[in-house]
Amino acid sequence: MIYTVTFNPAIDYVVHTDSLREGGVNRSEYETMFIGGKGINVSAVLAELGVRSIVLGFTAGFTGIAIERGVCSMGIEADFVRLPRGNSRINVKIKTGIETELNGQGPDIDEKAIEQLFAKTDRFSEGDTLILAGSIPKTLPSDIYERILARLEGRDIRCVVDATGDLLLNVLKYRPFLIKPNDIELGEMFGAELRTDEDIIKYAAKLQELGAVNVLVSMAERGALLLDENGKVHRQEAFRGEVRNSVGAGDSMLAGFVAGLADGYDMALLLGTACGGATAFSDGLAKRAEIDELLADDS
Questions:
Q1: Beta 158-162 vs 129-133: how paired, if at all?
Q2: What is residue 55's three-state secondary structure?
Q3: Of 12, 128, 183, 251, which one is the catalytic site residue?
Q4: How far is Cα 38 from Cα 4, in angstroms, rounded to an integer?
Q5: Against a cut of 0.85, is the pTM above it?
């Protein structure tokens, strides 16, 4: 089984309007709503690929109920910890040709709720996969990723981490199976500007020296690169198309990569890049038909 974690899920309320005037009444042309969160995005694309997963995390209040129902409507199993107080957040995104965002804070998450989440991880079975993706809300301890990986250590659970900075670096001692920085994030971790594949390989290898087993680096229009556990480099060029949406492209790549692992690293990298491209070329997360179309064009 694949489990994804979204610590601070949200309802993304997207408002489209011609202009935004501060201090006055503004009217939208139309609105859309999405269930947001990196782990949820990964699970949604996995579902498009016919791969079952379970979403973990925290929800609260009436917005939390809406998030849980929304996740289930996407064909994804939800097993959130329900918090007794507060509301899951609403993120407002105003699009006027440029995008203005106002992201909610989310509910307080206390130690009791954290222990309830840990209890769910205790039920994982040998060979399961856990995907930790994204930043953490300020109400969670900064070492929450470390505590989860420490709890799973020695249990043959395949851990995948998509995070940045110290949040990522601090878990490497637990030897996660896969980490997925993008090229900019990779450079920032080492204070370096990465211009070439050789630069990326050099610093991906440093992450392996610190404990990562496989390092997948997304590079936007340049595609993706994988440095695998045997030191072999796998390279995939980006698919061609008009970029309409960058939100969720990295999550989609991660979902495709994990879904394709059974067919080897090259196929996983191809499928991951196709999923990332299909999201980037559409207004929402990748759909199966869009993924298949890119793969067919590449064959």
A1: parallel
A2: strand
A3: 251
A4: 9
A5: yes
